[in-house]
Amino acid sequence: MKIQGTAIAGTLESNDVLITLSPSSNNKVEIDLNSIVKKQFGDRIEEIVREMLEEFNIEEGNIKIQDMGALDCTIKARIETAILRLKEGK
Amino acid sequence: MSKVINSLEEAIKKCELKDGMTVSFHHHLRNGDFVLNKVMKTIDEMGYKDIKIAPSSIFPIHEPLIDLMKRKVVTGVTANYMRGPVAEAISEGIMDEPAIFHSHGGRPRAIENGEIKIDVAFIAAPTCDKEGNMNGVDGPAACGSLGYTYVDARYADKVVAVTDNLVDYPASPISIDETHVDYVVEIDSIGDPNGIVSGSTQITRDPVGLSIARYASKVIEHSGLLKNGLSFQTGAGGASLATAYYLKSLLKEKNIKGSFCMGGITGYMVNLLEEGLFEKLMDVQCFDIEAVKSLKRNPNHQEISASHYANPDSKSSVIKNLDIVILGATEIDTNFNVNVHTDSNGYIMGGSGGHSDTAAESKLCMIVAPLFRARLPIVVDRVHTITTPGSTVDVLVTERGIAVNPKRQDLKDKLKTAGLPIVEIEELKAMGEKIAGKAKKAETEDKIVARVIYRDGKELDVIRQIKS
Amino acid sequence: MSKVRRTMLFIPGDNPGMLLNGGVLGADSIIFDLEDAVSLTEKDSARILVRNALKNLDYGKTEVIVRINALNTDFWKKDLDQIIPALPEVIMPPKIEKAEEIVEICEYISKIEKDMGIEDKTIKIIPIIETSLGIENSFQIGQASPRLEALFLGAEDLTANIGAKRTKSGDEIFYSRSRIVIAAKASEIQAIDTPYTDIDDEEGLKKDAQFAKDMGFDGKASISPRHVETINKVFTPSEEEIEFAKEVIEAINRAEEEGRGVISMKGQMIDAPIVNRANHVLEIYKSVMGGSINE
Predict the structure, then answer these.
(1) What is the pLDDT of residues C123-134, one digit of tens each?
(2) DSSP assigned state of B236
(3) Domain boundaries, chain B
(4) Which among B345, B437, B440 is the nearest to A72, CB-wise?
(5) Which residues pair with B184 in a beta bridge?
(6) Top-level CATH class of C7-235?
(7) Inter-chain contact A72–C56, Cβ cutoff 8 Å?
């Protein structure tokens, strides 16, 4: 699936993450990761993002992550919500 | 002969400052201090190079030091605590020579036995007379206790009082007396009151912080130390201060009167004194306006020097009579070693202050901290920097459990019998990792940017440059 | 014996920080709220957040309740679809007015449980009664399903619904409180009192909680973590109550050994209701004194 619209989920509150999905500029998956704990969890967050994109069959698109120390389950929830909103055309 | 001199420049000339010498400052004006920057600017304009500085602490307001460090006007730093841009720059390796960290008790020890030699001490004095008698309780930049200045006044080769409140001779009260002072310089402002002391200190509303404080007060309750004559020290915010709130209820409930509170004093401690729950306050530093006022008017609220507070080489120090201390941690490891020097990225954002001193001498040393900050667990395999050795730490209190140092089996048994949630520290570490995931450790370069000197003068740990 | 529920703390379902820390605030039960705390545009994200929290985080001894959206919305079925597989312990449907609504919810839950093969988990229900019709039907509601654990009084919506003024003294909800207690106890389930809404008034909270306890409520809800400790203290048996209860049980045991039927202790007749109350007190005491994290 290619991301064709834009969808946002989450907030910039502590322990949360803001996910923005938008179309890719170059026909692939672009991950733009910002995190207050990038050094410690950056790799793990990217891993989760890729897992989720695979689970939802997203092959092309831009995913921007602004993380404020969210746990894995929160990141996954926000990504799932953003994808859901994309599908519902919000 | 007048000690009053027209300018900082003239005072520096008269002190015969030379390249390579050491100048010192105190941090009682905290993040409202103008004096360090003004003096260093003057030293720079006069063309000096290779000056070593020994401020007792460095705050964000001291950012201009970064430029001086880059241009090698300043080539050495000794302090007990650092946070802000200067601390970050040092972490990034801006200086060739490592910074030296002492504790509040170790700094006077080092100065008294010559490990730190101060050529010129610049003492910011909220009130000062023409001969150099000074105090910190009056004046537009009143800061309260001048505890950290005593050793500089006595051991520096030259002492310059810098004031914005020159009063008629003799000043009163007198903290530092004229027998130690060479020159007095009047400037228009030594500091910004808003940066010096906060309004009144408020207890945190954070529910996790309050949970931690409640457990901490229960530990105190069942420690066997909650009896008449209790002595107590705690921090100025977060769960540390909230513990004082619960302690107050306990003291009232059980009709117990403490002997003294000590350390950095807040309005909250003043309230405990004024309500008769403690007899005395021993004050090395005032954190808010209430503390400053109380120091001025209440004879039971006394100023103490850093040496009197915590110098291990003194004949005795106040912390030797301290029952309970509540301290914080950025990290703690499974050996109970505590880090308050660096954050988990390896950036310097603190320092021992009185942490390692009070832990060493108190009967009960309690670390209060949340199990996580943002996503980062505070219980780790090994702390990035050892500020306080685990052998001096008795209990870790988090919102998810209480860990007792194995060498305190007596305490562990008491707390378990009382029904408190006692767990092994390894369990807390595992809990943290389970919830947050395992954090990658911050990487560093080889270059040492700071040395941590324990209160006995021996090197405890080193801090290495951040890897960008 | 039923779970001890001295305190029930509301946690906004769209707040990851509070979902993380909800279990350490000292409440016996926490209510992840998908209804009033969550704006209409965030209903979708809140239910996924709560679902993930339930699946991944360990709340220890704290009971986890989820307040779903009301039956007159599109949301409640989607809430249950997502939440039930994550195995919350209790579902809290708001604005319940009739027994039929409980039946409808139970059927929906049962279907999901069956599809997932988790019928044995028997997820419970605690409905919020917050309308005049709900109060009138409270006994029927209490009888409507074996899943029911308690009736919960929601005074804010109720007073708005009946045109009364919500006050600190609570005179306007006195009848409703009594009614809920009677209906719950007649149905042999618990009664949970409405939250106290002045966050800063500790004295007022203490009085209100004590009044609720004296009326027969088993616990009280809270909208602020700062109320939890006070409410817990009020609903925890006092030392005197515990001592008395122990004496009663001792007296009963001695009487049984000696083959006596009628027992008196300190000049008071000890009959079945007093013995039941004593057992109840000791059960609560045992449950909260076990050194658990939840005070």
Answers:
(1) 999 999 999 999
(2) S
(3) 4-56+104-196, 207-441
(4) B437
(5) B4, B161
(6) alpha beta
(7) yes
